[in-house]
Amino acid sequence: MAFWRTKKAPPDDSVSSTEAAPKSGGGLFSKMRAGLQKTRRTLNTDIRDLFKSEGRLVDDTLLNELFAKLIRTDMGIGPAETIRDDVATRLRGRVVHFEEVVQTITEQTRTMLQQESTELRLADTGPTVILVVGVNGSGKTTSIGKLANHLHQAGHKVVLGAGDTFRAAAVEQLTVWAGRIGCDIVTGKPEADPASVAFQCVEQAIATGADIAIIDTAGRLQTQTNLMQQLEKIRRVVEKKIEGAPHEVLLVLDATAGQNAISQARGFSEAAGCTGIVLAKLDGSAKGGVVLPIREQFQLPVKFVGLGEGVEDIAPFDPASFANALFSE
Ligand code: GDP
Ligand code: GDP
Ligand code: MG
Known about the structure:
By secondary structure, the chain is an alpha/beta fold. It is built from 13 helices and ten strands. It has helices at residues 13-16, 27-35, 37-48, 60-71, 77-91, 98-113, 140-153, 168-181, 194-208, 225-241, 259-271, 291-297, 319-327, and strands spanning 56-57, 95-96, 128-133, 158-161, 184-186, 212-215, 248-254, 276-280, 302-306, 314-316. The strands form two sheets. An eight-stranded mixed β-sheet has the order 5-4-6-3-7-8-9-10, sandwiched between helices. Helix 2 packs across helix 13 (319-327), helix 5 crosses helix 6 (98-113) and helix 9 packs parallel to helix 10. The longest helix has 17 residues, at 225-241. The structure holds guanosine-5'-diphosphate (2 copies) and magnesium ion (MG). The site of one guanosine-5'-diphosphate has 19 residues, from helix 7. The site of one guanosine-5'-diphosphate has 7 residues, from helix 10.
């Protein structure tokens, strides 16, 4: 998480906390806990229901019941089996209490969520270029606004590129975010070539000495060949201006979209050369377990999680905090 300390001190937690976040425990962690509240409550109630106050024997019946509860968080069969089997290995044949099982599950989840890096890959010299892609409505533009604010707060000079020229509202939406944050934005004419907007955005970043250019794109599906080629064109144009750019291609996934949508995004991620995931809309869903199949199915780190529609509602993904926020009351 060093990247937001590179320019100036991190923002004071007392000003970044949202109305829903409890005061204690640090701004980002409490935000994560607040965002995952629904999942945590559901899981805890569900699993607690399996236990009597005097404890319960860990046998096949309990293990199967536990499996059924875990599945309800959208974590998928593979991860739920792994967790169940870990509980079996460690606790089978013993009479245990709820707390002990939850602790075991949390530890195993943390292990399964481990990944090499959550930090954004920044350019050594010249502006860093971040391209943001995904299907319609996944949360791209909102995530860009929140990410831009996060980076701006950390002392980076950010410029936005309104590369979704397909929907006029998308340009307005991003312009509102830029105004709110106080960062530059480059927009094109309606239906302009997104690659030309990307080009101008990178040019402006270089000209104004910006540290980071974040480029929005219209939603698309992997099957829309012409639109996938358009992404390729954006990459080429950006690469021509800055060697090694785009430094990040972030795939925005909608946490509420369900497992099928997420499996489909795998092909997309490969076709678009994605380098990391932003998991949006984790708040308000009882399915926060979905991050487990994402870690299982994508060879990509989850870099940020979206936890609401407000400007502060984004947090760098941290496996340990996430596992705790999923299970620990
Ligand atoms: P895009 O089409 O991928 O650019 O998606 P948008 O950024 O326009 O977001 C689509 C909808 O999802 C909007 O109503 C956003 O306010 C909402 N949204 C995006 N991210 C989040 C999030 O983290 N939490 C919640 N609750 N809503 C979100
Ligand atoms: P055509 O029928 O072969 O001309 O192709 P389309 O009508 O699908 O797309 C022409 C151009 O319009 C594309 O290059 C896009 O810029 C834009 N476009 C059309 N449909 C969509 C869409 O569903 N999403 C996005 N993002 N752009 C689209
Ligand atoms: Mg958008």
